[in-house]
Amino acid sequence: MNIWVTYSRRKSHCASECGLPIKAGDPIVVAKHFKEVSDTKRITLYFYKHFDCWVKDAKMYLQQNPFVAAGNHTGRPKTMNLSEEDKATRLKLLQRKACLDQQLRKKLKIAEPELKDLESIARIQSQLAGVTLEIAQVGGIPTSWIEDMLN
Ligand SMILES: [Zn+2]
Question: Which of 33, 40, 64, 120 could lock 45 by a disulfide, CB 3.0 to 4.6 Å apart?
Answer without folding.
Answer: 33
